[in-house]
């Protein structure tokens, strides 16, 4: 696989830069991408790093989200994105595309070899008993990920799905989230991602209670990046929302031309020449 003409920094340099971008009050903003073209568009708009969305990646490769994507396909996509951009890349690896800690370690080694300097790994369980993995079980998986890659080479963002899945009752959810965060950081996580939280009081409680940079999921209805920065958030992700919006354009465009025979949905599209130029020289 060729390397993009824009990708000049070493992997170590990119990893160091990516880690430094996690600063409480000055969040790293990640408009998540799902293929090379979306990654190049996001980079061209000035993003300091590229984050993949597991949902968008899975959909683009013909699979449903939720641990259903083949690991080799996922890693291949990371390699293509990393080769095409000059900024650090962090990969959403869902639960690690593996049933056990050893498999998680294999995934992490492959993703790092593909050029990623960060990962997201979640504690949601897509099969088996319970919506969430037990704390100890997930901590073992994070420890395996940490052992597979030196901290200087990989930023591990541990995702806690207590709020996204409405796990437990509201009164104990915060305590459970903080307990999980403590265990995951002790196991080797560098950052904590808690999607599903938008209430500023709760965000502030997490910022104060989590012993690592806090990542939140933003989108319509959430506080602005500026407001999240004021609360001390260190990382803001858009998750699958841009991919969802892109597929919404597909639906609207198809519906319009098939029903009315008109093309208004396509009026604000990126021009062919501009998009083609963004892909010239990208590694594929």
Automatic annotation (TrEMBL):
Organism: Planotetraspora phitsanulokensis
Keyword field: Lyase
One Gene Ontology MF term: lyase activity
Keyword Lyase on entry: yes
Claim: Chloroplast is one of the keywords in the record: no
InterPro entries in alphabetical order: ICL/PEPM (IPR039556), Pyrv/PenolPyrv_kinase-like_dom (IPR015813), Pyrv_kinase-like_dom_sf (IPR040442)
Protein name, as recorded: 2-methylisocitrate lyase
SUPFAM superfamilies, sorted: Phosphoenolpyruvate/pyruvate domain (SSF51621)
């Amino acid at each position: 696989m060729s390397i993009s003409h824009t990708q000049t920094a070493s992997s170590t340099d990119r990893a160091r830069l990516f880690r430094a971008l996690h600063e409480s009050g000055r969040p790293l903003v990640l408009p998540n991408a799902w293929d090379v073209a979306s990654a190049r568009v996001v980079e061209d708009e000035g993003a300091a790093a590229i984050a993949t969305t597991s949902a968008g990646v899975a959909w683009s490769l013909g699979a449903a989200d939720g641990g259903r994507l083949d690991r080799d396909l996922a890693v291949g996509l990371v390699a293509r994105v990393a080769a095409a951009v000059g900024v650090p890349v962090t990969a959403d690896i869902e639960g690690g595309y593996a049933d056990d800690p050893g498999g998680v370690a294999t995934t992490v080694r492959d993703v790092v070899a593909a050029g990623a300097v960060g990962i997201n790994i979640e504690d949601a369980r897509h099969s088996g008993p319970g919506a969430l993995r037990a704390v100890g079980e997930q901590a073992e998986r994070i420890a395996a990920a940490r052992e597979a890659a030196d901290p200087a080479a990989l930023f591990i963002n541990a995702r806690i799905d207590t709020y996204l899945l409405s796990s437990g009752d509201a009164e104990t959810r915060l305590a459970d989230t903080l307990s999980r965060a403590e265990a995951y950081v002790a196991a080797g996580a560098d950052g904590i991602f808690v999607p599903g939280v938008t209430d500023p009081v709760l965000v502030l409680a997490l910022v104060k209670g989590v012993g690592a940079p806090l990542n939140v999921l933003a989108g319509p209805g959430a506080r602005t990046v500026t407001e999240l920065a004021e609360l001390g958030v260190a990382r803001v992700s858009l998750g699958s929302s841009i991919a969802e919006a892109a597929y919404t354009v597909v639906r609207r465009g198809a519906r319009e031309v098939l029903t009315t025979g008109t093309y208004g949905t396509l009026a604000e599209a990126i021009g062919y020449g501009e998009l083609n130029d963004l892909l010239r020289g990208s590694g594929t």
